[in-house]
Amino acid sequence: MAHLFLVKDIAFQAGLSTATVDRALNGRPGVRQQTEMRVKAAIAELEKQQAGAMDSGRMLAIDIVMETPQRFSDTVRTAFEAEMAAFLPGGFRCRFHFAEVMKPAEMVQLLDRIRLRGTHGIVLKAPDVAEVTAAVARLAAAGIPVVTLVTDLPNSARITYAGADNRAAGETAAYLIGEVLGNRGGKVLVTLSSGRFRGEEEREIGFRRVIRAHYPKIGITEISEGHGTDAATGTLAAAALAADPTINAVYSIGGGNRAVLAAFDAAKRPVGVFVAHDLDADNRTLLAARRIGYVLHHDLRTDARSAFRAIMSRASASGRAVPASLSSVEIVTPYNMPAGD
């Protein structure tokens, strides 16, 4: 394979050993087709990153680690790649590690492997559990800064959080739903991908607080552990609708919105108002089709920029405190939806 990069850089990007990459590059026997594809993809990624990077300034290689549905990870990748190409005064090279469902032990194993291999920093979306917090402590002890993304690990050794004010986002969702339902009342189906994520918990806390204080005629039914996947979330939503005929609204914290709407359709039940998070491809389509009413959106490029700045600040001045950076929440309707990338 023709390339302009060091074997160790290709290996870092592909997540393979230098020996394996060397065998693949030189066409030696014993290399699986899947491995060859990973090496080719790594070279293509490096070429793309190099095209957008500055000729001067320090190049920092970082890892983006997330447990999240693919529709959201695709949006995050697009945001980080766009910001990576524009970031000044230095350059970043990102390696992405995404999984829709990852057990805490698998997440810890991945973080430990990155620590042992080496990195300039980690941007992390992970559940707030003790095992992950311990892994972050090991990264900090090794001098590797960790920035939490979208959902925080406030009791960990992370250097800062980049994302929206999740509690305020939940309060905003409660206001939108409460004003639409008004005196009609009813019950809101609140969907979480998993109760292990602090960001989702904060959204739910904010939502419940405002509903309880200002809209006492509106009840709440919660479903969780669908992990944002359509199959599992749809099954949970169908069961909730079958059990409660008063559900007439949705606050989707964890995604799987197509499946939730399909459950309402199958039950021949109307949705009075539907509030979702994030302008991923699914939500754009559903918003344009008027299947959902509002999307609470925050700019992931702003989050990426905040993460880059925090890691660069720590790389240039070890020990300096990095303040949390909260991106603003925007209420998006079919009439003010920003253009896609």
Automatic annotation (TrEMBL):
<dbReference type="InterPro" id="IPR000843">
    <property type="entry name" value="HTH_LacI"/>
</dbReference>
<keyword id="KW-0804">Transcription</keyword>
<dbReference type="GO" id="GO:0003700">
    <property type="term" value="F:DNA-binding transcription factor activity"/>
</dbReference>
<dbReference type="GO" id="GO:0000976">
    <property type="term" value="F:transcription cis-regulatory region binding"/>
</dbReference>
<dbReference type="Pfam" id="PF13407">
    <property type="entry name" value="Peripla_BP_4"/>
</dbReference>
<dbReference type="InterPro" id="IPR010982">
    <property type="entry name" value="Lambda_DNA-bd_dom_sf"/>
</dbReference>
<keyword id="KW-0238">DNA-binding</keyword>
<dbReference type="Pfam" id="PF00356">
    <property type="entry name" value="LacI"/>
</dbReference>
<dbReference type="InterPro" id="IPR025997">
    <property type="entry name" value="SBP_2_dom"/>
</dbReference>
<feature type="domain" description="HTH lacI-type">
    <location>
        <begin position="8"/>
        <end position="46"/>
    </location>
</feature>
<keyword id="KW-0805">Transcription regulation</keyword>
<dbReference type="InterPro" id="IPR028082">
    <property type="entry name" value="Peripla_BP_I"/>
</dbReference>
<protein>
    <submittedName>
        <fullName>LacI family DNA-binding transcriptional regulator</fullName>
    </submittedName>
</protein>
